Amino acid sequence: MFDRLTQQPADKILALMQQFREDPRDNKVDLGVGVYRNAQGVTPVMRAVKAAEQRIWEAQETKAYTGLAGDPAYSDAMIALVLGDAVARDKVAAVATPGGTGAVRQAFELIQMANPQARVFVSNPTWPNHLSILRHLGIEMVPYRYFDDDSRAVDVNGMLEDLAQAGPGDVVLLHGCCHNPTGANLNAADWRAVIALLNKTGAMPMIDIAYQGFGDGLEEDAAATRAVASGVPECLIAASCSKNFGIYRERTGLLMGISQDSSARGLTQSTLAHLNRQNFSFPPDHGARIVSTILTNEALRADWAAELEEMRLGMLDLRQQLADDLQQRSGSDRFGFLAQHRGMFSRLGATPAQVEAMRADHGIYMVGDSRLNIAGLNAQSVPVLAGAIVAAGV
């Protein structure tokens, strides 16, 4: 039977990681993989996470299953973090998932169960795994314009024109903040226009929010998600704790299904629990318990928020350093968008040939579409990258 399998396409980011590891150069720079790194190149365990794990270790007396939906305290804490008071709790169904990817997968399966003919509109570009999962499930994808390669900003008019083609039964996939891979985000007026269009067409939004706290701040980064959730009849939200809690390997996510009709919550909740049972049964708990411990303890939450803010400001500083260095080297302000983008990523607008030249000549590793991980930089590597960008003629 196994000889009937066909070779699946390699994940480009994982392949890039392997290529980086095999590069013997001491001055190589990894800007491909999407993890936060501090100035020493380390992905640290956050202070509050260590403290929470200590508390859990001391108090936990069992490793028995929690429930198909996960620990209710985790769901409550995450719903409050993402939605604030924008939506009443009795309108939100939620299940814990193995990471944000697990939440995205469960959301797509829920969509398929509800409407096998659903089309999912995805931004061009988007996180590649969105496309891979949709393709694997056989769900029709419709790209919508998002990133303008010339201005390195959002093509709002093109986006709205394309989304006007969605209709009832379709789903529009949106990035809640810190768009991956471009770093270019909608402003408040743009979001209002999107919400109005969704209500006009009847399409349902699905929001992937994986970087809350990495852009403009915890509350600021949640504003768009809250506006959408409170402004449309129904929506799905896939949230991740990998980045903002730094617990990548603990695989901690949450999927929310929101309906302004609170009577729909019971059916949505039972369906989400059913999907958990089919895919992995009970969700992992350790990361979820870390998150709920932090978010429900005043001191731990304050320390976590403070360290997260330090990380956010550090990335903004690196963005400004890179933009300034490039302005000085190139004599042009065409790289000013780097300081305006938010989150871990920006898309340079370089060609694949220019990306390859930066790798071959300078040991700079980034994804072929020129997405670079700002959090992979430090004060020493910024000028190396700036020199490589200018030398490659970007």
Descriptive overview:
The chain is 46% helix and 15% strand. With 394 residues, the chain is α/β, with parallel strands linked by helices. The protein folds into 2 domains: 10-45 and 312-391, Aspartate Aminotransferase, domain 1 (Alpha-Beta Complex), CATH 3.90.1150; 65-296, Aspartate Aminotransferase, domain 2, CATH 3.40.640.10. It has a 7-stranded mixed β-sheet, with helices on both faces. A two-stranded parallel ribbon has the order 1-12. The longest helix is centred in the last third of the chain and has 33 residues, at 298-330.
Summarize the topology.
Elements: H1 12-22, E1 29-30, H2 47-59, H3 72-83, E2 92-98, H4 99-114, E3 119-124, H5 128-137, E4 140-145, E5 147-148, E6 153-154, H6 156-163, E7 171-175, H7 188-201, E8 204-209, H8 218-231, E9 234-240, E10 252-259, H9 265-279, H10 286-295, H11 298-330, H12 337-340, E11 345-347, H13 352-362, E12 364-365, E13 371-373, H14 381-391
Parallel strand pairs: 1-12, 3-4, 3-7, 7-8, 8-9
Antiparallel strand pairs: 2-10, 5-6, 9-10, 11-13
Helix pairs in contact: 2-10, 2-11, 3-10, 4-5, 7-8, 11-14, 13-14
